[in-house]
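In this supplementary section we document a worked example of the pipeline. Step one takes a protein sequence of length 74 as its only input; no multiple sequence alignment statistics are reported here. Step two produces a three-dimensional model, which step three serialises into structure tokens for compact storage. The input and output of this example are shown verbatim.
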Amino acid sequence: MENQHRKITGYRELTKVEVDKMNAIKEIGTALEKTIDALRVHPGVDHRWVSIGETHLQQGLMALTRAVAKPESF
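The serialised model returned by step three reads:
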């Protein structure tokens, strides 16, 4: 279904500039995910810290997308 976000409470139409910013953030996320995946297979790496780093990076990327999208809901 096209434009599903219009049916979700709190979402709005994004401008071209905002869409471009969101896509840039998503690209950074993809690069970070590849880095994390590479760390997970590296022997001697503390996987607890990799997981903590992954979670914090996900939170940061989510915060950046919310900064652009400016949802109206909590």
